[in-house]
Design a protein that fits this description.
The structure holds 2 protein chains of 2 kinds. Chain A has 11 helices and 2 strands, in the order H-E-H-H-H-H-H-H-H-H-E-H-H. By secondary structure, chain A is mainly alpha-helical. Chain A has a single domain, classed as Transmembrane di-heme cytochromes, Chain C (Fumarate Reductase Cytochrome B subunit). Chain A has a two-stranded antiparallel ribbon with strand order 1-2. In chain A, helix 6 packs antiparallel against helix 8. Chain A is elongated, with a radius of gyration of 21 Å. The model of chain A has no long low-confidence stretch (mean pLDDT about 90). Chain B is an all-alpha fold. Among the domains of chain B are: about 120 residues, no CATH class; about 100 residues, no CATH class; about 35 residues. The chains are: A mainly alpha, B mainly alpha. At the A-B interface, helix 4, helix 5, helix 7 and helix 8 of A face helix 17 and helix 21 of B.
Chain lengths: ~230, ~375
């Protein structure tokens, strides 16, 4: 069984999932490149980037256009998930449960040497779930504050105008946080981690080696290949 | 040219530009071999003998009755007041012929001018012999464009600096602004009543900006362009970002920092040097504080300032409600008293971001520790 597993693959991600991931790379990358220079407009690198993109007006328009596209992606993602869950075609594999918090503690114990093996994870481990929910809430904050900043007049007609500078602070700080998480956490998990180095390819190819699945997501493996 | 009895002209200084006399022996001309002519009364106080060439000029130009008939029927006094030249910055450095170079001893030649102003304008080029960089800057000014278009009244060197009586322009800044006032009377009156102008005019305060501090001295640009409009924050920040200077008057330098950090401040700063003259309007200091008539916001009071800000916002943001100016924190950094929501959001992220990032890093380090020790 083990020898066969080494060369056998199972499907892990659908085309829709892979498309969403590729879109996030593109859109998030563009938002960072057009957005961070606006956070630090008086930095030399920022000025160089802004000039290279055609000046502050062009940079802002690219940022807004990409931001709208990102908002559309977020809405599409949530719609597909909600419809999928309601019709029973999707399993709530990203939902956080008590097990995830227990896994986190058990895994840290394992890291510190108080346990001999890591906890057995399901389709997504707690690190992946926390990152997913971070992305969902982060996106909600960014899209909401982004629209507030895009339509300040409409906002001030219905709500206190102090929301606008508050939205600016929030948009700017949340962006920095998201960028740092992707830079530190996602890069470490998907590229630098000994299990993934140099790149965990399954989100691009859609498939995962059975052995790797058994090692990283043993509960899902047991579900897919129940022991007789 | 001929000698005539004539009235003493008080405008003599404006007539002969940059004339020149060496009153102290400052160079070879004083070592002339020929005997000196009688020393004029006005120069008797000075110890050095007058050089021969100057003495030759004064032989005639000391005469208060010396005049020239102009084509417009008026006469121009050719009298030169030696004492006035002695007091000027050029008094010890230049001789008559350094500026009035085309004249030899045989003049008058009968040559004359259309009018006194035509003579002054014809002397525009005299200063460039020494002040070439300044002269070339004036050629790029809006004033030179006016002169080129045929408007004789456009100011040239002598109109602001004087002629035989030229003083150090850096010594008295109030003088500079009054030069501009000769033509820009209304603007000067508004400036003289402003928070800046009043103390310059009344107390000779040297800290406040005079005309040229914002408009530049010689390369004066058309203030109606977007480029000039966008240069306003830079001009204001030069003083309002200067901590020791602002402390002296109890003004916060946050006014500059908060504007530059704001969306509009970024727009103004980053679009300032665009090649094309974009008509993208962005709010700058002047829109809320005024231009020449700037008044102290403390004295105007918060209600009056709020009304002005509302008007300024509405210029671009059509349909803005009365509460819209609250989107601008009035140069105050967010605090629990002032903009608590902005302050709270900022504080939350100041704690949340380091907490989150350090936590994630620790998690990664522990992972690496286990992987390396488990080998």
């Amino acid at each position: 069984m083990t020898t066969r597993d080494a060369d056998e693959y199972v499907v892990r991600f659908s085309f829709w999932s892979r498309f969403q991931h590729a879109s996030v790379i593109l859109l998030f990358g563009l938002l960072v490149v057009t957005g961070l220079p606006q956070k630090w407009p008086y930095n030399d690198v920022s000025r160089w980037l802004i000039d290279a993109m055609g000046g502050i007006f062009a940079t802002r328009w690219i940022h807004r256009a990409v931001g709208v596209a990102f908002a559309v992606l977020v809405v599409a993602h949530l719609s597909v998930v909600i419809v999928g869950l309601l019709t029973g075609k999707m399993k709530p594999s990203m939902f956080l449960g008590r097990k995830d918090f227990q896994d986190a503690i058990l895994n840290l114990k394992y890291y510190m040497g108080y346990a001999d093996s890591p906890p057995r994870f399901g389709r997504y481990d707690y690190r992946q779930k926390f990152e997913y929910w971070g992305l969902i809430f982060g996106s909600a904050v960014m899209v909401a504050t982004g629209f507030l900043l895009m339509y300040p007049i409409a906002v001030s007609l219905a709500l206190p105008a102090e929301l606008i500078p508050a939205a600016k602070v929030m948009h700017s700080a949340e962006a920095l946080f998201a960028f740092l998480i992707v830079l530190i956490w996602h890069m470490a998990g998907a590229h630098l981690s000994p299990e993934a180095f140099p790149l965990d390819t399954s989100i691009f190819t859609g498939k995962i080696r059975k052995e790797k699945l058994k090692h990283e997501h043993p509960l899902e493996y047991d579900d897919l290949f129940p022991k007789p | 040219m001929k000698r005539r009895a004539a009235r003493f002209s008080v405008s003599v200084a404006a007539v002969l530009l940059g004339a020149t006399v060496v009153l102290r022996a400052s160079g070879p001309p004083a070592q002339s071999a020929s005997p000196s002519p009688p020393v004029p009364a006005a120069a008797q106080a000075t110890p050095a003998p007058i050089p021969e060439s100057v003495a030759n000029c004064l032989g005639c130009h000391e005469d208060k009755g010396l005049t020239l008939d102009l084509k417009d029927g008026s006469t121009m006094s050719l009298y030169v007041d030696m004492a006035e030249i002695a007091r000027s910055v050029h008094g010890s450095q230049l001789m008559c012929t350094d500026c009035h170079a085309k004249y030899d001893e045989d003049h008058p030649s009968g040559r004359t001018f259309d009018s006194q102003r035509a003579y002054t304008v014809s002397s525009y080029e005299l200063c460039k012999k020494c002040h070439f960089d300044t002269y070339t800057r004036t050629l790029e000014s809006v004033h030179y464009d006016l002169l080129k278009s045929g408007f004789e009244g456009a100011p040239i060197c002598a109109d602001c600096h004087g002629t035989h009586d030229i003083q150090n322009p850096h010594a008295k800044r109030a003088m500079m602004s009054r030069s501009c006032a000769a033509c820009h009377t209304d603007i000067y009156d508004a400036y003289a009543k402003s928070v800046h102008g009043r103390v310059l005019v009344e107390d000779d305060n040297q800290d406040v900006p005079a005309c040229a501090d914002c408009h530049t001295h010689h390369q004066v640009q058309d203030p109606a362009t977007t480029k000039f409009r966008l240069s306003a924050p830079e001009a204001c920040v030069r003083c309002h970002g200067d901590e020791p200077l602002m402390q002296k008057y109890g003004i916060s330098t946050m006014v500059a920092k908060t504007y530059l950090a704001d969306f509009h401040g970024v727009t103004a700063s980053l679009s300032r040097n665009l090649a094309e003259d974009r008509q993208q309007i962005v709010v700058t200091c002047n829109d809320c504080h005024g231009v020449h008539d700037i008044a102290s916001p403390k004295l105007r009071g918060p209600e009056a300032m709020k009304a002005t800000v509302t008007t300024a916002c509405a210029k671009c943001h059509q349909g803005a409600a009365m509460n819209f100016p609250a989107a601008w924190l009035s140069h105050y950094p967010p605090s629990p008293q002032h903009a608590p929501l902005v302050w709270g959001v900022d504080l939350f992220y100041r704690i949340f971001i380091p907490f989150g990032v350090i936590g994630l890093c620790l998690h990664l380090l522990l992972h690496a520790y286990r992987m390396s020790s488990g080998r």
